[in-house]
């Protein structure tokens, strides 16, 4: 049976929006690099494939809680030196970087980490981000994806601009074999890049390319370029639907299967009840008034007089809702399948929203993860711990050993590079 | 007496172009981050103010020897974690980055290093670099400096977008005091940046701003913004001329004196003769044919039949030379003041060219450094070791103790930040 893949998606004090309010939270340490080094070492102790950072270029609504703090590429350089095996994945936006910057920094990090770098290619979303990088507004979705494809091609070409054996270092002769370092001469619609890169070919050939295609265009880009994919799946059926669609597109692009890892929020307890208690403890930290106001906005009706610990009333069907459909659909789905109280619904929305949430004992959660992998919904998971480090300690100490006992997850690293962990061949040049 | 400042300018295997050819060179380690960490620790053992990286965005003529390898910002993140006190300075070009990228990465590194970051602002020079970042050619000198000034203002404004006390972290209330995180709303000729930054205010308030203004426009920019200055000075009179001109411009800009550090190439030996031998050993590693060809180009006459170990013949005066004047003037100056053989001239040009070169015993070199500082030529030096780590080990182990005995250089670090080392106040906000 294929090994499962596990990523730790690091986000502030955890993916639950109220996690920073917990008395034991690390909110005072968010600008302390040692906090992130410790998290990477914890994930490495659990033999995870990688840690992963999302990224954003606008401060956002920070009164409510931390969003971004340090910049991911600089963090990963430090984390590379605090770990030995674990992969290190950073989001880099094709809308805000030049391909030369991206190729150069990622190649440098691949050297610094000894071949453990991954790049999550995103096109970014918000006008507030565009307006920090010289644009009045975000380019259209189509325009962003056209740029992203040219961007990916250019970055790959830059990594290929040095052959693996270009460095000769002949003290009586040449430093490099100049015929093995070639210009790129890319003159495309969005970019002009002569090359070659200043950095010799990365240890992995190419740092591993991740993508999280959701839209039609995003899925096609992922199918053509991604070597591993992050997904959003609320439950197994939606995971299966995404999985089979994506692998079909990958196959149509003439490429071998790629690992697909849906996001996963877990609350682990030695009993079902303890797990629920951990979830409730975080949910109860949410400021009720502002959460109510937000939900009222999301569903287009005033919820200020709904009872906090009573079941949420039924809502009008999706067709009858005129606001943004995506989030409304998620809310309908949570209400229909989980019959939550208002407090539970607010908590679910505050922790990974449309992502799968598993609450229970290590055995129960391992059962579910196994089912997803065996029934064609996932090749592994991008773990979104609601609180850090607590929730991921629970996974490392309780769920991982259970997966290992079942032969579903590695007991030791078998290789040194992120490509090794993901079973990906190294592209030669 | 004011303390002298010392920077280690790290460049490949050393600043001598043939250093990588030495049997003991670290040429095999240029993509190994541990090499740079060791150099930073060595400089920290010598109580240096900082290590410093130049930067370039084009591979250059790499057959002859290494130029760039890893990317400096990612290197400095790792080096920050391998050291405790020493400052860490990276070049970042205002022509190729957006101010938001620069402000964000430098702020992040200032947090990662606990307040030890410096930024050397350059405008870059070569068309080959421009053509890696989407430009057909470099903008004009005037255009680059206009952009650089707007760039510096925008970066400073982004660092100021968070007040020092913006982070409230009240678990029962707000994460930040929203009134202390303000947008920038910069809509200038070159940049549109709304802000605020995603990174909280850097520990130093502002990472220390370095500049190396040489042209008239460059000197004015340095006078208005730089908190420390790198200079090129062939000898004490030219150092004094630059020093007094620059400090006059600083004063005219209404700012206090800034530390000026000329580049300095040293060959240290326990005897004068041993020092000369070390210089000769590196010079003899230069490939003679290509060095002759290059010199022929520089001076516009064929030197292929000049004798290698005979004195260089006199050259036509500067006025009679129609090629690039700067380098020709340097060559004339070396010939006039040092009466070198052809091999010596080739060696001098291969190691820091127009920068001051001191060859001799630790006492002799300390004498010279003291003279420069006492006679208004410098506040310290940007050391450009011809070979690494050998030449800088010699400085740390032999020259620094001599300077310390004379009370000219710190025996222990007195503070924790680069601002502390340079005696610069922290800008509050």
From TrEMBL, chains A, B:
<feature type="domain" description="Luciferase-like">
    <location>
        <begin position="21"/>
        <end position="377"/>
    </location>
</feature>
<keyword id="KW-0560">Oxidoreductase</keyword>
<dbReference type="InterPro" id="IPR011251">
    <property type="entry name" value="Luciferase-like_dom"/>
</dbReference>
<keyword id="KW-0285">Flavoprotein</keyword>
<dbReference type="Pfam" id="PF00296">
    <property type="entry name" value="Bac_luciferase"/>
</dbReference>
<dbReference type="InterPro" id="IPR051260">
    <property type="entry name" value="Diverse_substr_monoxygenases"/>
</dbReference>
<comment type="similarity">
    <text>Belongs to the NtaA/SnaA/DszA monooxygenase family.</text>
</comment>
<dbReference type="InterPro" id="IPR016215">
    <property type="entry name" value="NTA_MOA"/>
</dbReference>
<keyword id="KW-0288">FMN</keyword>
<protein>
    <submittedName>
        <fullName>LLM class flavin-dependent oxidoreductase</fullName>
    </submittedName>
</protein>
<dbReference type="InterPro" id="IPR036661">
    <property type="entry name" value="Luciferase-like_sf"/>
</dbReference>
<keyword id="KW-0503">Monooxygenase</keyword>
